[in-house]
Each structure stands twice: as structure tokens, then as C-alpha cells.
Design a protein that fits this description.
alpha+beta; 14% strand
Length: 65
């Protein structure tokens, strides 16, 4: 969890568009495991990297970001 928090934070500091991270809690006594809080960003999750159902130009627009 701490690695993901650090990577997302570093990407944001480098100007990559990722959600803002607010805090990392490593105290497992809070909810039973480490966690972090980040902002909610409206969007979509692309689970399959092959992007099935999209045309080559649509895939190129996503891959090129």
C-alpha cells in the first residue's frame, strides 16, 4: 500500500494526471490494514489493456496519453 501511495504521489509531482493523494495510514489498528486516501476523480476504468471493442484510432488516442 505504501508503494502505491508513493508512486501515485510522485507521478502527480511530475505533472502526470493522477488523483491527488491525501494521507497514508500504516496503523493496522484503524481498519485492519494499511490504507491511503486519495481524491475521487470521475472517469472510467479500462480493465482490459487490449481495449476490445474500440477502433484502432480510439486505442491510439488512449495509448498515446
Amino acid at each position: 500500500m505504501d508503494r502505491e501511495f508513493r508512486v501515485i504521489s510522485a507521478l502527480r509531482d511530475a505533472g502526470i494526471p493522477v488523483p491527488r493523494t491525501y494521507c497514508l495510514c500504516e496503523d493496522e489498528g484503524v481498519i485492519g490494514r494499511a490504507f491511503y486516501v486519495m481524491e475521487y476523480v470521475e472517469g472510467r476504468v479500462l480493465w482490459d489493456q487490449a481495449l476490445p471493442g474500440m477502433t484502432p484510432p480510439e486505442r491510439a488516442a488512449i495509448y498515446g496519453r
